[in-house]
TrEMBL record:
GO terms for biological process: carbohydrate metabolic process. This is Alpha-galactosidase. The keyword Acetylation does not apply. Belongs to the glycosyl hydrolase 27 family. Pfam families: Melibiase_2, Melibiase_C.
Length: 409
């Protein structure tokens, strides 16, 4: 099922169909291979906003803070992103989720910031973030109210709300799916996509439709990222389910538009460090948006060490932009892999079971010529093995994984 050279050709053909006819035959591609087209062809496929050539990175308030957000917290988070060096590693989006706004629109029908929580307003917050090289993300809903019901929804107000966001200097919009009156999802999301593009301000459009209605097959044409599942929780099983769901749509990801298995839970306390490392490995390999979801100012050193692993981030941000996939499964033992630029391959060996185990990837599992010798870089041990042939193996604790970059010699 993984793209060797033969299914690379299939991937190219499917992409050609998509470019020429714009039809959804690509649905068939979800099942096998695909996604292996060259970067030049995919570059033609960026949205008009030209954003998200690589998956977006940053922070979102929801997983740790829920509705409990206010200006001071956001500024502290931004300050910590910069002072701890995370901004420099690429985590530049500071995204407010639900509950940033007032409960009703103003007399002109505009959305307004919550007066007590954000007394300086969103324009001032955007300026603050921009002055630090960061970007402001907001949340809105494609129905009548947001999911917490604390703010008005944007249904029927798409133009006005997009203009409001642009006038504040917003850079990213997460657009949710609550209270949508059963109206067609593609139409609702297309309206906001068009409205954002019309403002002329490049605003990353992140569809949050929870992976209903085969979202990857149409979001692909109008958004920079799209959620492939319901909300993640801070547990091993919730994380696994999202990893697997997201994997089904791998062939639809490309520079400019990414599958999104939801924000990271790393650092929130519900999983072990090994589990969080696996969470981060798989999100990075799958070219998921890397949105940190913990308390940044107070994060532990262990959490920091996971989130700041530059070699793992480099896999996520690789310029080839092909989503890595599950390529082999033997009970609870799995191999995930994907191509990187320069004929390199990223591979994750993952023990999802509850006992120690050895996980092995054969070159034939991961699209490498069986005769090739590689340098294998362990991105957590930060060490390399030279002249590795035929296969790579790791002895793994329960729920642990290792990620390697294989460079053919
Ligand atoms: C971080 O911890 C300190 C000390 O416990 C506390 O005063 C502060 O409010 C915390 N900051 C956040 C953002 O939770
Ligand atoms: C965490 O890291 C900082 C900076 O690297 C260091 O000064 C501090 O001692 C570490 N804290 C612990 C508990 O190891
Ligand atoms: C690489 O490994 C193969 C097989 O293990 C061996 O025959 C060969 O001599 C090695 N080459 C180098 C340069 O070490
Ligand atoms: C396997 O299990 C034992 C404990 O039963 C542990 O000490 C050991 O380090 C484990 N991990 C590996 C990778 O062998």
């Amino acid at each position: 099922m993984y793209m060797g050279n033969s299914s690379l050709a299939v991937g190219l053909m499917l992409l050609f169909v998509r470019l020429v006819s714009g039809v959804d035959e690509v649905a068939a591609a979800a099942a096998g291979g695909g996604g292996g087209a060259g970067p030049m062809m995919r570059a033609d496929f960026l949205l008009a906003n030209r954003l998200a050539r690589t998956p977006p990175m940053g922070w979102n308030s929801w997983n740790h803070f829920g509705c409990d957000i206010e200006e001071k917290l956001i500024k502290e988070t931004a300050d910590a992103m910069v002072s701890r060096g995370l901004a420099k590693l690429g985590y530049i989006h500071i995204n407010l989720d639900d509950c940033w706004g007032a409960s009703s629109r103003d007399t002109e029908g505009r959305l307004v910031a919550h007066a007590r929580k954000f007394p300086s307003g969103m324009k001032a917050l955007a300026s603050y973030l921009h002055s630090k090289g960061l970007k402001l993300g907001l949340y809105a809903d494609s129905g009548t109210r947001t999911c917490t019901r604390s703010m008005p929804g944007s249904l029927g107000h798409e133009e006005q709300d997009a203009e409001t966001f642009a006038s504040w200097g917003v850079d990213y919009l997460k657009y949710d799916n609550c209270l949508n009156k059963g109206l067609d999802a593609e139409e609702r999301y297309k309206k906001m996509s068009d409205a954002l593009l019309r403002t002329g301000r490049p605003i990353h459009f992140a569809i949050c439709e929870w992976g209903k209605e085969k979202v990857a097959t149409w979001a692909n044409y109008m958004a920079n990222s799209w959620r492939t599942s319901g909300d993640i929780r801070d547990s091993w099983n919730s994380m696994l389910l999202r990893a697997d769901r997201n994997d089904e749509w791998a062939s639809f990801a490309r520079p400019g538009g990414w599958n999104d298995p939801d924000m990271l839970e790393v650092g929130n306390g519900g999983m072990t460090l090994e589990e969080y490392r696996s969470h981060f490995n798989i999100w990075a390999l799958a070219k998921a948006p890397l949105m940190i979801g913990c308390n940044i100012p107070n994060m532990s050193n262990e959490t920091y060490e996971i989130l700041s692993n530059e070699e793992v981030i480099a896999v996520n941000q690789d310029k080839l932009g092909v989503q890595g996939k599950k390529v082999k499964k033997d009970g609870h033992l799995e191999v995930w892999a994907g191509p990187l630029h320069g004929n390199k391959v990223a591979v994750v060996l993952w023990n999802r079971g509850s006992r120690n185990a050895t996980v092995t990837a054969l070159w034939s599992d991961i699209g490498l010529d069986p005769t090739v010798a590689v340098m294998a870089r362990d991105v957590w041990a930060h060490s390399s093995q030279y002249n590795v042939t035929h296969q790579i193996s790791a002895d793994l604790d329960p729920h642990a994984s290792k990620m390697y970059i294989l460079s053919p010699r």
